Amino acid sequence: MAATIILNGKPVSPDARATTVGALIAAQGIDPSHVVVEVNREIVRRDDFDRCPVRDGDVIEVLRFVGGG
Amino acid sequence: MDELIIGTTAVRSRLITGSGKYRDDRLIPAVLAAAECDIITVALRRIDFDRPAESILNHIPKGKVLLPNTSGARNAEEAIRSAHLSRAMGCGDWIKIEVINDQKYLLPDNSETIKATEALAKEGFVVLPYMYPDLIAARRMADAGAAAIMPLGAPIGTNRGVLTKDFISILIDEIRLPVIVDAGIGRPSHAAAAMEMGAAAVLLNTAIAASDDPVAMARAFKLAVEAGRTAYLAGCAPTSNEARASSPLTGFLDT
Question: Which architecture does CATH list for A5-63?
Answer without folding.
Answer: Roll (3.10)
